[in-house]
Write a structure and sequence with these properties.
Layout (H helix, E strand, L loop, with lengths): L4 E8 L3 E8 L11 H10 L25 H16 L9 E4 L6 E7 L3 H18 L10 H13 L2
Antiparallel strand pairs: 1-2, 2-4, 3-4
């Protein structure tokens, strides 16, 4: 698998950053289809299970993490990275939906707290998920270093 998730379109507005993503043909669409990859994500970002989540079963992401779309997991990985930057006081929450006109395509909407920050965070989240869902090959992502890099990027602008 060359790339797990491709960003095919980005719309940056005054309130929201919306990325349309395509899940590779040879990738699982649901977390239940690769629970080892899902567990790798959890082991890197254990706080992800405490995220509020209104889209699936229950009230937290823990209630659906084991059986949700990879794109939905990508949303929460991105939200976790954004929250760890401490660059905003607002609670960060996203929304994911399937693009019915296109196979394996989803849109992820996040608050546009800073377009550069959100773009870099979703890119970093894709990198983490690609590692997790390709048998954890290569170096384990350093989440703290990734977050520090996101902060440095924004502070350097």
């Amino acid at each position: 698998m060359a790339q797990l998730i491709d960003i095919t379109r980005v719309v940056v507005g005054p309130e929201y950053f919306t990325a349309t993503v395509y899940i590779a043909n040879d990738a699982p669409l649901m977390t239940i289809d690769d629970l080892e990859g899902t567990t790798r994500v959890y082991n890197l970002l254990p706080n992800i299970i405490d995220h509020a989540c209104a889209g699936d079963e229950g009230s937290t992401f823990k209630d659906c993490m084991g059986n949700t779309e990879l794109a939905h997991l990508l949303e929460h990985v991105t939200v976790e990275l954004l929250a760890r930057t401490n660059l905003t006081d607002e609670i960060i929450a996203g929304r994911t939906w399937r693009e019915v006109a296109y196979d394996r395509t989803y849109s992820i909407q996040l608050p546009c707290i800073d377009d550069v920050l959100v773009a870099a965070a979703i890119s970093s989240a894709i990198w983490i998920m690609t590692w997790a869902f390709t048998d954890g090959m290569g170096a384990v992502p350093d989440v703290d270093a990734t977050v520090a890099g996101l902060v440095g990027l924004v502070n350097g602008l």
